[in-house]
Specification:
The complex is a heterotrimer of chains A (555), B (267) and C (299). Chain A contains 18 helices and 21 strands. By secondary structure, chain A is of the alpha+beta class. Chain A folds into two domains: 160 residues, Succinate dehydrogenase/fumarate reductase flavoprotein, catalytic domain (Flavocytochrome C3, Chain A, domain 1), CATH 3.90.700.10; 302 residues, FAD/NAD(P)-binding domain (3-Layer(bba) Sandwich), CATH 3.50.50. In chain A, helix 4 packs parallel to helix 8, helix 4 runs parallel beside helix 15 and helix 7 packs across helix 15. Chain B has a five-stranded mixed β-sheet, with helices on one face. Chain C is α/β, with parallel strands linked by helices. Chain C is 48% helix and 8% strand. In chain C, the strands form three sheets. Chain C has a four-stranded parallel β-sheet with strand order 6-5-7-8, sandwiched between helices. The chains are: A alpha+beta (555), B alpha+beta (267), C alpha/beta (299). Chains in contact: A-B, B-C.
Amino acid sequence: MGYTPEMKELIKRVEASRPERVERARRGEHYPALSLEEREVVLNKFHPDYQQEGRRPVRVGPNKGQAFPEEVAGMLESRSMLRPERIDLSKVDFDTDVLIIGGGGAGTSAALMASQAGLNVIMTTKLRHGDANTMMAEGGIQAASQECDSPFYHYLDTIGGGHFTNQPDLVAALSHDAPLSIAWLESLGMMFNKLPDGRLDVRHFGGSSRKRMHSAGDMTGAEIMRVLRDEARNRRDLITTLEFCPAVELLLDEEGKCAGAVLYNMETREFFVARARAVILATGGFGRLHIKGFATTNHYGATMDGVVMAYRVGVGTNFLYSTQYHPTGVAYPEQNVGLLITEKVRGLGAHVLNIDGEQFCFPLEPRDVESAELIKEAVEKNKAVITPTGRFGLWLDSPMIDLLHGEGTVRKELPAKFIQFDRHGIDISKEPMLVYPTLHYQNGGIAINSAAATAIPGLFAAGETVGGIHGENRLMGNSLQDIITFGRRAGVSAANYASNGVELKKLTLDHVNKFEKELAEAGITNPLIAPILLPDYATDEVSSRRLMDAQMDSE
Amino acid sequence: MSDAQTAPAKSTPAQQVATGDRAILPEGAKTIPIYVMGKKYEVPETLTIMKAMEFAGFKFLRGCGCRGGICGACPTVYRKEGDYKLHFGLACQTVVEPNMYLAQIPFYPANRAGYSLDEIEPTAEAIFALYPELFRCVACNNCTKACPMGVQVLDYISALKQGDIAKAAKLSFDCIQCGLCASRCMGELPQYHIAQLARRIYGKYIQPHADHLAKRVAEIESGKYDEILGKLTEMSKDELAKLYKEREREPDLAPLGTWMPQDTQYL
Amino acid sequence: MKISYYPGCTLKTKAKNLEDAALASMAALEVDFEELPRWNCCGAVHSLADDDLIHHVAPVRDLIRAMERGSDKVVTLCSMCYNTLARANLLMRDDEVKRKTINDFMDEEKDYHGEVEVVHFLNFLRDEVGWDKLRSKIKVPLEGLKLAPYYGCTLLRPKNVSIEPPGHPKIFREFLEVLGARVIDFAASTLCCGSYQILANPEAAETVAATILEGGINSGAEALVLSCPLCEFNLSKKQGDLLQKNMLSQEVPTYYFTQLLAIALGLGGEVCRFDLNDKISAELLKSKSLPSCDQAILT
């Protein structure tokens, strides 16, 4: 398979400009980065987040009146799959100290910390333990571990990358805890990339002033996830994991404290009442809502469940209108469209080029700026390659990496990516990749404080489901750091809270009734039912023939 | 019921564009027959097994995860017509072929030995004690043949039997723990659990520790940065923007640990 | 008496007439055999074809690794490995049918036909290095040391992989003489050490081990020289058990042949790690003023 003859012809232009570009890179010269003012201009004109089309104000709940993308607004205005009056809350199926909803990196970190405190933990997750965006994060994890770096610069880079919108106490927590997180992972036996003397191998990334990106091959997230999961499995005495069993609604007690959740066994379609003295939401992001129809890098289960549940108990969101488009998603081959190509490729020196093999941007701008520059080159300048399936693509010149760092670097530093393209007949150490921005990350989410606590007593949240840490734009490597930092903080906070004489009163789902009343009052007559739990990719033809649609048509 | 609910995109049907992961059948595209657990479906060629099954109307509960070839949820076994050989791949990464007979193996039982990483001896003998079945390996190599990631499974099992934990850790690094190796093992080894243990022992005990990190941790725990972080949280956007612009950038090609900024007051 | 009848596959197919005759005869004799309701192949197909081929997959794979590197020979130090590799190699050279079966099974590898030769290190020293050259390199002759070479079985049996023509093996004697030792042959030097019986039937293994060790000492040797780690386990590591059970009159020092080679070449005792041998083995070397290991370990 590989590239078509037409595309191979175009690659010659990339090859023609390569020797001169490599020379410049060797001299430490790069394409000039944009000033803060210039960033503003390109973002406003080309970034999907900044365009008003496809957004509308939400009509109910804590964020009433704020505008969100249509797909997100629909979720916030959704109704429960439960009929509260039909659920017997006096019959408790699971009783635990800490209930963790979500089994990804944040949830598992929280589980390890809460169990460390000697508490019983139930971690419930809608797919398998570890099925999460954490697993897919390739590039790395930030922490100011070097002598020339400090939490001060981590703070500054992060808040600058977020256009100074970030919630300050959360950024401080992140940059403070980051080296502690790395040390914790090292103590759990994670295989970081290191120099022979044990020094952590770190790299630059978009928006960095210091080399701060730690990695484990090009599967940093997968390595983190499998180490955390393995450790959780070693603690079976305290941590119970329920798979294929998502939470679908939070439970409060009569005093308004969070007191557990209703769980749904997706295989048997049974509902269960889980009571807990503290609850942690760690359900991940919303990539599978496919905002504006964009392809996504996200996991199958990234459907915004936690935000939906929290919203119904009255916990609002921060920055939920903001979505990160990763500048380099796969544009070709078609089978891999939307999949992430880690920023590490650019960190290692690969240039981004247009159809003529020319550079048109600094390759390591913050992600939103970089995405906007790619969209601009395609949409305004008409300088993108058009793939055989009609998608835009710009070149990412990966063969530069071996030229800059020595033969074999691509295979060594990007093994997973190498295999992925090799399967489709493309050797990325010899041929460039075709990329285009792809929906990557839910920048905003549930409002928390630096202890990972929400406004509801007993309800904590961590990971991609929360908002504020990254403001309106997240830097690479801060998401993996965020799930560890706030996952650990949530675990500790929930354990402290649950150990301090919490007395649960009668369980209730009244908040669900109240929310649905609000929906009716706002004139929302046919709300979606959410959490949707999983996306459905059946064709319209198939779904029109399905039982539910057929029944609805006949009614 | 919930499982009939779909992404909101579905509420605006009839529009034939490829949004998200939904496959479309472009004008003039060819379809090919595939057999999902023995049952025939016509699907567009060039799709992955996963997208082809979704095109056919399957909605995955098991057997679908990251959709990017890294989570190990969708291991799939298939045969091709007229060929006795078994083939292995990830449904999200393998392109459909005409007349392929496939079945997913979303889960395969594999014994996992519990242990305490803090207390374990970092020796091969400790691994043998937890997994004595290592010595049931007859080197048939079915594990390696089944691995969708191209991991040399037999080689890392052999390395462990030879006492080389570091080699096993490195050889097994690309493992996604899908379980296909274990499903094919005549010695009934849980290779991927054994490899996980080897990697963690390597990471904790054999790989040299990062001394500069330990120093930084001590500094943080002593409260060294609390004051400056506190000040940063109080700063106005303009003050922050000024500091942000003034940052020095560590040179790309400076070897690690060699460069220091002019301004060291915030280190 | 209840009797079951097992017909076998061939009598049900190609030789159906033979069974028919038998059944007819039985009826005539008013014998009523009941055919087993569930039966499978008696196994003769497999045993006739000697289909334990899966055991050869591992050694053949190693030989393929050597072939891939373009090697003509692969050298091994352990008698058991030598034996396993050499037998697998012969099978791949000589048995066309099994060769095809194994090559077909390992279809991910290159086909192998016995291209590589398997050589034990002793043969390599004699035939490739040469005794004369080896003698010229000796810096610390093992003078005064009376050694009994122990072959065990896997260097010599089966005879088609024997490292020497059957009869009176002498390669080990020649080797030790080149190192400067006095060599004592003893009758039990080609007995089996007990091998894996040490797990299944320890008493039997202990009996032969005691016979071998006593045999060596009684012939006037001060120590046994070994060429297989499994022999070393049975003859050295298990000596404590033998002494405890009064099956052995005294501790017997043992050395691996490579250890003696190293000290004779003047490489010192450290590389040999005699501290991992029995204490008495190091003491014997020390008493002969030969390099053993440092005093701290001995005391």
